Amino acid sequence: MSLLESIILGIVQGITEFLPISSSGHLAFFKQAMKVKIENPLFYDVSLHIGTIFSVLFVLRKEILDYIKKKEMLLGIIVSFILTVPVALVFENFAERVEESLILLSFSFFVGALILFSSRFLRLNLKNHFIKYALIGIMQGVSAIPGISRSGTTISTAFVVGFTPQEAFSFSFVLSIPTILSAISYKLMKVLLGKEALSGVEFSHLFFGILTSFVFGVISLYILRKIVINYKLWTFGIYMLFMSVICAIWKFIL
Predict the structure, then answer these.
(1) Which residues lie below 8 Å from residue 98, measured CB to CB, with a gap of 6+?
(2) Engineered SS bond to 88: which of 10, 144, 147, 246, CB 3.0-4.6 Å?
(3) pLDDT tens-digit series, residues 104-150
(4) Collapsing DSSP states into helix, strand and coil, what is residue 231?
(5) Three-state secondary-structure class, residue 137
(6) In sequence order, which residues have a C-beta less than 8 Å from that of residue 186 and are 6 or more positions away?
(7) Is 21:28 a contact under the CB 8 Å cutoff?
(8) Residue 201: predicted pLDDT
(9) Distance CA 3, CA 21 (A)
(10) CB-based contacts of 71: which residues, under 8 Å, 6+ apart?
(11) CA count, 13 A, side-chain hemisphere, 223
(12) Rounded CA gap, 17 and 23, in Å?
C-alpha cells in the first residue's frame, strides 16, 4: 500500500464513519476497486479507528460530560453496548465474507438503505426505556456488517423508538465511543495473538491514515448533526441504493 492509498483510505474512513453510509462498506469497495494490498489489514484498521474516536471526543466533549453526570443516560449507553457485542460476534464471519464479495456488499448496502428509510416512515410507540436502548444496541450489532452504517442504524432506530433528533444524534455518537474502543481492542488482540505480524508496517502511512480520518471525521460530525436535526437522515438511503447498484455493476461489468 502506497502513502497516497493510505491517505485516500483515511479520508474515506473519516467521511463515511459518521455520515450514515457505512465506513466498512466503502473501505471494502475502495480496497477492491483500487486493488489495494494491505500487509497488515487489522493493524491498519485499528489506526483508522483511532483517528475517528478522537474526532468524536473532540466534537461531542460537552455531550459526553452530560452523559457521565446523568445516571439514566449512562445506563442506556451501557445497556445498548452490552447487547451490541454478542450480536456483532454472531455476524463476524458473515461480515468478513461481505467485505470480500461485491455481490454481498451490494445486498448489504440495499438493507442499509431500508434501515435509513425507516427513520422517516416507521414509528413504534414504546414506553419502556430498557426496550428502546435494547433495540438500539441490537441494531448496532447488526451494523457490524459492511454496507450497514453504524451511525445510520443507531440514529434511525432511535427515531423509530421515539428519540428527538438531538437525543438520537448524541446517543448514537456517545455510544460509538465504547463501541469503537471495543473494536480497536478486539482487533489489537488478534494482532497480538499472532493473526498478523507487525513487520513491514509503514508508520508514515499509519500517521497520515489517523490524521486524515480525524480531520474528515470532525467535518462529517458537524455536517451530520445539521442533517439529523432537520430530519433529513433518510435521504442518505437514496445514496445507499446508488452504492448497491454500483457494487453490482462493478462486479459484473467493470
Answers:
(1) 28, 104, 105, 108, 145, 146, 147
(2) 144
(3) 999 999 999 999 999 998 999 888 999 999 999 999 999 999 999 99
(4) coil
(5) helix
(6) none
(7) no
(8) 57
(9) 25
(10) none
(11) 14
(12) 5
Are 225 and 169 spatial neighbours (Cβ–Cβ below 8 Å)? yes
Measure the CA–CA gap between 156 and 169, rounded to whole angstroms.
10
DSSP for residue 233: G
Residue spans of the chain under pLDDT 70: 1, 38-43, 191, 194-201, 254
One-letter amino acid at 247 equals C
**pLDDT the model gives residue 197:** 55
Phi-psi bin for 134: left (phi > 0), alpha (psi -120 to 50), beta?
alpha
Amino acid at 87: V
CB 144, CB 95: distance < 8 Å? yes
- Angle between helix axes 129-142 and 71-90 (nearest 10 degrees) is 40
Please answer whether residues 67 and 74 qualify as being in contact, where contact means their C-beta atoms are separated by less than 8 angstroms.
yes
pLDDT at 160: 95
Torsion over CA: 230, 148, 49, 102 (sign): negative
CA distance 113 to 234: 8
Predicted pLDDT of residue 210: 85
- Distances from the Cα of 80 to the Cα of 85, 170, 178, 190, 246, angstroms: 9, 14, 10, 24, 33
Task: Match 414504546 to its residue by C-alpha cell.
Answer: 126
